[in-house]
Amino acid sequence: MDRLHRRKNLRTGNSAPPSAPHLAPGRRLVLGGIAATLAGLPPARPTLAQTTLAQPSLPQPALVQARPVRIGMITSLSGPFTALGESMRAGMQLLLAQSGHRLAGRPVEFLVEDDLARSEEGARKARKLIGQDRVDLLCGVISSGVALALRDVVTEARTPTFLLGSANDLARGAASPFIVRPTKTNWMLGTTAARWAHEKLSGARVLTVGSDYAAGREYIGDFAATYQQLGGRLGRQLWTPLGSADFGPLLTTIAAERPEAVYGFFAGSDAVRFLRQWKEYRLAGRVPLFGAGAFFDQEDVLPAVGDAALGALGTFHQSPTAPASAAFNQAYMATGKPLPGEFSTTGYVCGQVIRATLERADGDLADWAKACGALFSAPVETAFGTMPFDPRNGQAILDIHVNEVRRGEDGRMVNTVLHTYEKLRDPGPDA
Amino acid sequence: MGYAIVQTLNALSFSALLLLTGLGLSVVLSLMNFVNLAHGGFYLLGSYVAVLWLGSGAPWWLAFPAAFLAAGLAGAVLERFPFRRFYARPHLMQVLLTYGLSVIMADLMRWGFGAQILTPELPAALQGVVFLFDMPFPLYRLFLIGAGVALGLLLWLLLDRTLWGAVLRAAVTDRGIVETLGIDTRHLFAAVLVLSAGLGGLSGALGAGMLAAYPGLDEEVLILALVTVVVGGLGSFGGTVAGALVVGFALTFSKVWFPEFANVVAFSAMAGFLLLRPNGLIAPPLRQI
Amino acid sequence: MRDIPLSRAAPLAAALLALALAPLLAGAFHLRFLAEILLLGTAVMSLDLLVGLGGLVTLGHAALFGTAAYAAAIAALHLGGNLFLVLGAGTGAALLMAALMGVAIMRSSHLFLLILTLLLGQVAWEVAFHWREVTGGADGLRGLPPLSLGPWRLDGPRALFLLSGGLALAAYLLARSFADAPIGRALVGAREQPLRMSALGYSIPRIRFRAMLAAGGIAGAAGSLYPFLNLYVGPQSVHWSLSATMIIMLVIGGVGSLWGAFLGSAIYLALQTYVSAYTDRWQLFVGLVFVLIVLLLPRGLAGGLTGGLAGSLAGVLSRRGRP
Amino acid sequence: MSALLEISGIGKSFGAVRVLSGISLAVSEGETLGLIGPNGAGKTTLFNVVTGFLRADAGQVRFAGAPVDRLPPAERAARGLVRTFQKAMVFPALSLRESLAMAARQRAGQGLRWLGARACHQESAARVERLLAESGLARHGGERMADLSYGEQRIADLLMALALEPRLLLLDEPTAGLSQAEAERLLGIVRRHDARTAIVLIAHDIDIVFNHCDRIAVMHLGQLLRTGTPQAVRQDAAVRAAYLGSLAD
Hints:
The complex is a heterotetramer of chains A (431), B (289), C (323) and D (249).
Chain A (H helix, E strand, L loop, with lengths): L29 H10 L8 H6 L15 E7 L6 H17 L3 E2 L2 E9 L4 H13 L5 E4 L3 H14 L3 E3 L15 E2 L5 H16 L3 E7 L2 H16 L3 E8 L7 H10 L3 E5 L2 H13 L8 E4 L20 E4 L9 H9 L7 H19 L7 H10 L2 E3 L2 E3 L1 E2 L4 E2 L1 E10 L5 E12 L7
Parallel strand pairs in A: 1-3, 1-4, 4-5, 5-6, 7-8, 7-9, 9-10, 10-11
Antiparallel strand pairs in A: 2-3, 11-16, 12-13, 14-15, 16-17
Helix pairs in contact in A: 3-11, 4-5, 6-7, 11-12
Chain B lengths: L1 H31 L6 H18 L6 H18 L10 H23 L15 E4 L2 E4 H23 L1 H11 L1 H6 L4 H27 L5 H16 L4 H21 L4 H15 L13
Antiparallel strand pairs in B: 1-2
Chain D lengths: L4 E10 L2 E11 L4 E5 L6 H9 L6 E6 L2 E2 L5 H6 L2 E3 L12 H12 L9 H19 L14 H14 L4 E5 L7 H14 L4 E5 L3 H7 L2 E6 L2 E6 L1 H6 L1 H12 L1
Parallel strand pairs in D: 3-8, 3-9, 6-7, 7-8
Antiparallel strand pairs in D: 1-2, 1-4, 4-5, 9-10
């Protein structure tokens, strides 16, 4: 096997034709890159082998269709969001494989970089993809901190970016003409959870509990604000540090409060521990549990908590039982993966939006304002449903589902759509 | 009333977990003066083995010896090379070597077990709950407290009340004298390291029901264990027990009283404590000159 | 006048030459990357003053570096990006933090020091992570004004590189002078024979405290420029894992050799940046490289290089000396 | 004239073992006091208490008229209460000249200077060169301490103490492991350097003590048995019984 083929980012999957990988002249071998960086030298010339393998680089506009489009993805392949990052990559790879590795008639080169869930790392990787690998567009990011750090980097470099973090600020103060946001903001989920709680619990006193970091603060804060606006009563507001090893003390406190309902937000390992211990302390089934977003993620959390989350309600823009995602679910599981959760779907949807953008711009992103205008002119059909964009901030307008965790036919837990709030639009710059 | 009792039991169960992880670390530290930052890796390996075992349908209680053996085996391999060459080196070099090894172990485990969060299917016998004054407390945590006490006692008996323990303590004080008695101290030290690694794996198996298993947990556990051992004062069995109690109660009751600032309060308290007693709770008497 | 030995002058000249040439040759990304290497390398070098000279291993160095970064970023957000203002605010904040760490280093050593500084660093991280009104919490602070010096804006990659290079060079000379000065020798003495040093009338806590202040000041200066590479600062720059990374960089480069810190940070960051694009197993790779260095080159690459060079040179000379 | 060093009622225990009990002793300026006694008598422990490396359970230490009990060792040394250790404690990685400079700079109050280091180096250099010349070790000045012979290390150790210009020098078996000639040479250096320096000397070699000391104090099992001139001590029955007797036979 040619060693060039083993480089994981070059090709998107096994289905790629084994011949003629498209190597741009700027791409260098690892050692060359390191040596050049250490020495502060300019990019090395392509080696003989690379030159003969590479497509002749022809910059004429007539041939833009033949030139590959390079998509750079930044995601977390190590650090706390590793599993989510792998899902996001898998979703994107699935879409590219389905498209035969061609978008709008152009072959695709897909490069993935690991941000370790660290902002500075993400910024450096983005600069590398832009400055050294010369990608045509960027996408990705799990952590909102990384997304916010990338905002100025891609705006300054004028690189079209499909940014997937969900901090509210990304649709507001940090919105940028170069950033499209084909995913939710935290506000969309927090506010719909409050509306549902208000409609169904008829004014119950709700205790909130959240992971004390930016996303937790937004999920809980937006819920509390809307719930109180609607006339609901809040009980105690509990916060716990990110990465809590033991939720026993917190759950004992909650049990002693005897709340009528609990609204919470946790993610990843915190969500798993909280839910399992929620059951161990016999709160499951006795106190109604609400949540939002990743708290009950289908792929990341539910398989690890058994039936501990059974009956819990969560607002989410993703659900495996939403009709729009049926085709994606099947295709995703056909690759040997479990029922998809948020980030595999998000990765796939991101690909769908990128494909729509390229198709509407005839494969040419040189005039980004025009391509962007074409994208925003009509909704895109995605696995999240029909997705229009808010031209003020490039933010997707989304249907938000209220999911209940139910036991599926085969016994596994499934986020099942109870109700859908349609066309949620973040207040955006007006907020 | 029930609230106070259950919170105290919460603290005790967390202390038991800290004791289990801390003991493995403190055994090699106190007996061999070896700092092993790969201990978190042994813990996580034990967790993964237990999760897989409990999911496989084999008798559940065998999961714990299986985790002990798996981690002990990993420890035996690492002991042959390269730990053995670093027993006499300064702490800094040991810290560096074992930290590097822990990075390698973590990545190998992520490779082998995936990045998903895994949790064990606890047997029905451990899933129950007891009510104390109307407050629920999981049976599993009582089991943890029991395991912590039992293992602590067992280890203490082994090291303090058996001939093997006596020889070991003698070898620590003067390796040469023990070797003149015809005892191969290399085997002795290897056995201690395997025991410590096995303890790490066992605590991982016991702790999986509480902490789950996922990449990065090794580091979190390692730090808790290190803090436990250091707060207790290096190199004594009683110190580790005391450290586990102090750290367990500090972390638990900071969550009870100041849930929002739990970590700041607990870390500041422990830092303040170490500033006041720079050698931990129970410092072995040391003559400098 | 003391002569500057050739072995010291040569790397200095090489460094100056590289600083002068790089902006002409390297591209925008690479210049910014080099600037990051230089800033982190400077912080690692300041850590070497503690580890290499004093044998004091702390896990709180990122707290110094990150505190400076936050202070500089906050100062810039409110008062503008004047270079001296930013440097002053960052270094000042780092010195305050170093004074706190200094209390720790006065009182404890070995594993205790490691854990104590880890705890103090964690407290600093918790503050940065939770004090949302000031630090932006988990999301960090973005949209900083670019650095400026009077009428000049210093936000291009070339300006940032030259700035970082200048800072690194100044810090290197400062650290060198520290190591050669009485305080540096006293720090070595306190490591080798603490009792003898006390008996000579040296107060060991005072030596360590001053060393911590010196290291904190240098790390702080580097930290104050760090946010301006991306016009962003986040809580990871305070986290203990960055401290651990700095120790890894130091060991790869070579404990005790000040310039090795730059070599170590360059190699680590290059591995992290380039290998991760090719394999998900890049951490395995970094771990293996690190363990191999600990096993084979306990004095790091810098020690290996100079040792190797000196060794071969000595070999040549002795052969020539034979009749 | 009041004594330079006044020790009164010092007691010290390690756990249940009583190492020092009720020790009172005075040393006056310029005097050389020999401290003898069998192993385990508590001589080194007394040194540790006097120089601040150990804290006494009872009693008081006054130096140059002021109590020093609460001062750390470094502070006592800075006041001129200087000691050496049983084993030569040198800085293996530093050269002889650097080691002496370290002591000399501390004496000049410049030990912790960073900036303006060049001036410090020059200032301490003169004193260092004088010491090297007096001791006859000048040609070894540039060598690493680790490369010196044991006898030379002991002399270097002593020179570091002398570089501090001590008012009272506590020497803990400075001649142990040295030949008779080497030992004489070492003590000669001390005397030649400054006759006003008071000295307390622990040594096992009785001849050395009796030849060089003005007064002798005998310790046994943590107690001070007798203090007096060499003549008086030699003839003391209790001392003979406890210590010298075995040698006299």
